[in-house]
Amino acid sequence: MLRFVMLAVALLPAYAQSPVRRFVDAHQPEILREFTELLAIPNVASDRSNIRRNAEAIQKMMALRGISSRLLETPGAPPVVFGEIVTPGAKRTLIFYAHYDGQPVDAKEWAGGNPFAPTLRDATIEKDGKVLPLPVTGQRIDSEWRLYGRSTSDDKAPIIAMMAAMDALKANGTKLTSNIKFFFEGEEEAGSAHLSRIVQENQALLHGDVWLICDGPVSQNRQQQVYFGARGVTGIEITVYGARRELHSGHYGNWAPNPAMMLARLLASMKDDDGRVLITGFYDGVEPLSPVEERAVAEAPDVDSSLKQELGLMRTEGTGRKLTSLINEPALNIRGLQSVAVGSQARNVIPAAATASIDVRLVKGIGNKEAVERVMRHIRKQGYFVTEIEPDMQTRLRHPRIAKVVVSDVGYNAVRTSMDLEISRAVVSAVAAARGPVVRMPTLGGSVPLYIFDELLKTPMIGIPIANHDNSQHSFNENIRLRNLWDGIETMAALMTMK
User: Fold this and answer.
1) Which of 23, 11, 495, 1 has the alpha carbon at shortest distance from 212?
2) Which residue segment(s) compose the domain that 396 sits in?
3) C-alpha–C-alpha distance, residues 88 and 185, integer Å
4) E-strand spans in 288-431?
5) One domain, residues 474 and 351
6) What is the pLDDT of residue 14?
7) C-alpha pair distances (Å), 439 with each of 223, 297, 361, 366, 443
8) How far apart are CA 35 and CA 480, in angstroms?
9) What's the pTM value of the predicted model, to 2 decimals?
10) In the structure, what pLDDT confidence band is assigned to residue 410 with cuts at 50, 70 and 90?
11) Strands (E) located in 142-178
């Protein structure tokens, strides 16, 4: 990790000479103030009134920069905030994508108890970072400070970075080189259920040469990362059953089937000890990486050793293969388990049911429906009768093993843009000129609904993330390292002015 930090330090003089960097250094408190005002608006996708408040706040931010904007709406959907800048003589149109909604929150888990009260700290919470007052104009700000709050990194940071980049370019008299469009979604963390309809209804408006997907983290070594695709995802909930009610574990133990144990065995049958998925056909159809993509993976920094130290891991899955290689394969993850209670609430009972929530990450060549069917076949192969509804008494008495399987209705497929395209090379060159050496990745480990833009608009998509890798996105105490925010502003400005 030390050599990665030294590399970042070595690049600092180049940043200091940038007009955008000088603007950012001079206006950090103002940028943070606008950012915290946006973060203070709750943004869970199901909270429709506050989601609209977010959309309207972003519209006002655009209006302050002279950006023409509107809300793209369809019945039942949170609005998409659309903005547009027409640049005279431009030969290219860039569409910047981000989302302003965030994952659900449990305030009890958050330090301070309020995910929507942005808190500045002089270090990470894990390192006992102290709470600081928001800085005032002229105050020195340490780039290693962290700002905590829901969506500080995923995904309001890129939105504020774009707005600040516009300010910096205007202040320096720097002209845009492309037509610019902004597309800020309000339902990404809820599965983008209405995104396809919104895109279909606005296809003419959404024409462009490339979608720049500003979501996700930079490389774990803090270098800027550019990704050219994203894994798809689908969710599956599996419930297995025992007796129709909980039973006393002393009176009925050794006799009544225990659904928690049954579920544990079922899940264990899906993967081996090295993380290889054992479901028949799970990897069939994977589209191999091209030689250029394979070379990019091979050239990516080896971050595994430093990550193991950071995360307290003695071993990893994948039989010793690098993380950067493994995220280009499909994966199966148990994201939650539930059956009665533990700790002080534990009771001496045999559970009546046990439930697991899993997600399947997909790569190009495997469809989400196809992946679900493979999982369903595996469950049946383990002797389970599979149903989509709660089993009635007749069903219970007919089948020795029952699994209710509920599939998410918002699953989507993986996509990947070629690294060999002219626009791909132009984006990498622009980012590298501003941020130094770039880590190129064929696929982002996470999932973004890029397939909709791929299927409906036939437009290349390239990912430009800015958040720190240790940002706790989707979890409690989400944060952004301020250095990442300042760097992100410079990255966005570089894209807006690329040749």
Assistant:
1) 495
2) 232-286+329-407
3) 27
4) 331-338, 349-350, 353-362, 385-387, 402-407, 415-416
5) no
6) 43
7) 7, 9, 22, 26, 12
8) 11
9) 0.86
10) confident
11) 146-148
CATH number for the domain including 270?
3.30.70.360
Query: Which of 253, 252, 273 lies closest to 315 in space, CA to CA?
Result: 273
Pairing of the two strands 402-407 and 385-387: parallel
Which whole-number Å values give the CA distances from 323 to 152, 296, 361, 428, in the listed order? Answer: 25, 13, 15, 22
Token reading at 487: 């760097």
Tokens for 353, please give them. 């049911």
Task: Tell me the pairing of strands 131-132 and 119-121.
Answer: antiparallel
Do 267 and 403 meet the contact criterion of CB atoms below 8 Å apart? no
**What CATH number did the domain enclosing 472 receive?**
3.40.630.10
Q: What is the pLDDT of residue 451?
A: 84
Burial class (CB in 10 A: 0-12, 13-18, 19+), 280: exposed
How far apart (Å, rounded) are the C-alpha atoms in residues 147 and 426? 32
Dmax (CA) of the chain:
82
Q: Are residues 447 and 363 in the same domain?
A: no
- Measured CA to CA, the distance from residue 258 to residue 57 in angstroms comes to 52
Q: Are 347 and 491 within one domain?
A: no
Per-residue model confidence as pLDDT tens digits over 329-377: 999 999 999 999 999 999 999 999 999 999 999 999 999 999 999 999 9
Type of residue at 300: A
Cα distance between residue 298 and residue 441, in whole Å: 10
3-state SS, one letter per residue, for 127-177: HCCCEECCCCCCCCCCCCCEEECCCCCCCHHHHHHHHHHHHHHHHCCCCCC
Q: Are residues 31 and 53 in the same domain?
A: yes
Q: Which amino acid is at 191?
A: G
Render 426-454 in DSSP notation, one character per residue: HHHHHHHHHHSS-EEESSBSS---HHHHH
CB 226 within 8 A of CB 441: yes
Distances (CA, A) of 479 to 110, 123, 164, 334: 11, 11, 19, 24
**Quick one: tokens of 151?**
């969506």
Beta bridge mates, 337: 356
Check whether residue 388 and residue 439 sit in a common domain: no
Residue type, 285: G
**In angstroms, rounded to a whole number, what is the distance separating the alpha carbons of residues 493 and 202?**
27
Contact yes or no for 463/424 (Cβ under 8 A):
no
